Amino acid sequence: APWCGHCKNLKPEWVKAAAVGSKQLNNGVIAAVDATKEAALSDRFKVKGFPTIKYFKDGEFAFDTPNLRDSKKVIEFMRDPKEPPPAPPPEPAWADVPSEVVHLSEDNFKSQLRSKRHALVMFYAPWCGHCKNLKPEWVKAAAVGSKQLNNGVIAAVDATKEAALSDRFKVKGFPTIKYFKDGEFAFDTPNLRDSKKVIEFMRDPKEPPPAPPPEPAWADVPSEVVHLSEDNFKSQLRSKRHALVMFYAPW
């Protein structure tokens, strides 16, 4: 896709490989398809992301070749095309891996949280890198908590499967950690990132101080920068011969 950053990075390597291949590969071709213009081709060959690299033999699709990211590797492959080894099996769902973490769903949410006075719940997405980093700490905390916390539970919700729960508790990002008392939501606890802090918190749950006020909009901070809008864009730019405009996003 023309807008794809990884595709843009790969393009010069593809061009180099094609230049070498045109001289050294008597029976091979280095090719490209703009998937934004050739949607039917992309659909036919089940292209789901960009760039996707596919090897064809005698005009028929043979296999995907995901790891060709520089011209040398492309030429090496084309001299001796071999199918890569199969991808490793997918990681099992967290809920299917034995641990002391209580995995919550719409069916057991109320009953589990009401069974203990204190509950710390991590809303996560399986693909989320920060969630993956936090999971082993959550497992450690749950193992300690099962022995030391008589009236507390360490729990988790797969937000990709339990969208209704996530919506109900206004989960906007992952991981989101929420504290419940007597089965009712009390407050968010954003800074619990290791097992020791989790256990310390559960021994004496306290609401964190309020977040600092949001940063003021740039246009509201006095400076010599001229802030443009639809209303003043033409008039301001026509008032001077030269204008340098930064289009930005506050985040």
Automatic annotation (TrEMBL):
GO terms for biological process: protein folding. It comes from the Eukaryota. GO terms for cellular component: endoplasmic reticulum. This is Thioredoxin domain-containing protein. GO terms for molecular function: protein disulfide isomerase activity. Belongs to the protein disulfide isomerase family. Residues 1-80, 81-207 form the Thioredoxin domain. Pfam families: Thioredoxin.
